[in-house]
Amino acid sequence: MSSQMFSMFVGSLLVVSISAQAQSLSVPQLDLESQFYQELAKESGQDVPTAKGFLEEVPDGLSTKDMSPQCDPRRFEDSIVGKKLSTAQYYKVAKDYFARCANELTSNSTTGILGLLKFSKFQYPFLTHPQVKEFMVKLPDGTKIPGILAMKQDPRPRPLVIVKCGVFCSAAQTASMKSYLMHLFDQSPFNVLLLANQTGMDYIYYNKKVTLGGWSEGYEAMEVGKWMRDKWEYKDRISSIHLMGISLGGNAAVMGAAFNDKYLLPDGKKVFNSVTAICPVVSLRPTLDHLFGGQIVGRIFAKMSKDHFREARQYITDVPDLITDAKIPSSRLGMADYIGELASTSLQRRGIASTPQSYFKSNNFWNWKEEVKTPLMVWASKDDMVVNNEINAQVVEHDDFYEKSANVGVLNLKYGNHCGFSSAYGAQASAAVLRTFVLTHSPEFVDEYNKKQEMPWTFGFKKLGPQYEHIGQSWNFSSQSDQVKVSFRIFNWNGGRECADKGPWLANRSCTTTKEVWVPVSSLTALGARIPRTESEAQALTREFNTKVEFRIKGHPLNGTNSNEFYMTWRSHFE
């Protein structure tokens, strides 16, 4: 796309999103997610440093350490994309990869509460990226759903991924929105729409009502998908639509997968090609009971829930009498009952028959009696301290109905805590999971994406001695700079005893040196390079190139060799 055409596109996009932007100063957009994680860290009893900047990081899209060639996430992607795997085969390949490489992926990572805290502190001011804008979807019934829309520069049809974020999540620069926008936009060839949760303060501001749970939010996600497919002015840029949900948004995802089988489009096709539920709530009531019952998590979450209700009552018009200080329970153990009463009363006053019991029943995935036929991946971690794994993902994993399902699979990993997989397994592997699952279910796009391109490295590189070995390369773009830095990490087998004994993938960093080469951006236009207009665009381009570009010699990765003659290979469509 030319710069003139792109400017016209951005101008049109601004028209779509102008109402949200014009009110952005007055619309409440709270990052309660990050606040929640930081409060958990303070109360965890661990020695958590409080120095400014601690754990703050601008992710570069790479793994937490240099990977051996056999565990490189690129090999995982190569084993899937274009192989025409069935959904069940995909789950097997993904599980086998993590079983084989999890120890290496996590050997230099941050797990547990510190991993969650690190996840909450990722730096990405994405609203300053020229291709990322505030957006509003207005459904036929008048519901307004605030969102964040990220669009690639070229007009080719490509998968659109719609993401529902978690409890209290607004369409703002929250922890999960930053992380998953990096994975799905910067590190993937998709257009992305991130949507506020129904419990987000901006959603409440626009709709004046209390709504909570996957039954309503899953159906709403279906309606958004239909709107994007039928009413959106750029609907011709959609090749397929995929739904993802995070945490409480994961409840919308599992229910949305079920609705996707039932409520078909007029042509008989489904709205979503695939659904991914990330650290999801599968059964709402048991999850709330466990969450509020926790000594640390429960106490903090109850306090934040009460504060959220107090903030929301200046906007809510359907049940204002139920969110007074006298009605909000003093004990956290009464919060689940209170939420059930609040949600069911709101439904009643909108003319929908409901009781607290029927409300919780409808938001329990296990009350859906029909087998889900839509490809559904549940991605969870066993150390999740917020959404209990044993009563959610593990139940799906070991259920007789789904254990051998051709459509539903559970990737249940050891680490990740609550949705923070990139802290534990690295951004490269985490993005590869999401990207490959969507691509496996995008046959209309994957063949073209799978065509790799090549370019020789012509920017000079001195010959290495036999004691040296390439172990990693990385790109780094800078705002408004016409030069990009390429760093080559080189292992020295003669660097000391540990270097000789442990080798390149286990030894410490003292065995490694770095060579830097500065390359003109203009020489990389065939790869999709451009001079970044803002710092956030520079960050995004860094992640894009670190994901898609690989250095190779004839038939093999450059890593594990000492060659000084190599070329670059990449998949296009990220631009």
What do you see in this structure?
This protein has 575 residues and is of the alpha/beta class. Strands 1-2-4-3-5-6-7-8 form an eight-stranded mixed sheet, sandwiched between helices. Strands 9-15-13-14 form a four-stranded antiparallel sheet. Helix 9 links the parallel strand 5 and strand 6. Helix 2 runs antiparallel to helix 5, helix 2 packs antiparallel against helix 11 and helix 6 crosses helix 16. The radius of gyration is 24 Å and the shape is globular. The protein starts with a helix and ends with a strand. The N terminus is likely disordered.
List the helices and strands and how they pair.
Elements: H1 3-22, H2 32-43, H3 73-78, H4 87-105, H5 112-120, E1 132-138, E2 144-150, E3 158-164, H6 175-186, E4 191-195, H7 201-207, H8 214-230, E5 238-246, H9 248-262, E6 274-278, H10 284-293, H11 297-312, H12 335-349, H13 356-362, E7 376-381, H14 393-398, E8 408-413, H15 421-425, H16 427-440, H17 443-449, E9 452-456, E10 468-476, E11 483-492, H18 497-502, E12 512-520, H19 535-548, E13 549-553, E14 556-557, E15 567-571
Parallel strand pairs: 3-4, 3-5, 5-6, 6-7, 7-8
Antiparallel strand pairs: 1-2, 2-4, 9-15, 10-11, 11-12, 13-14, 13-15
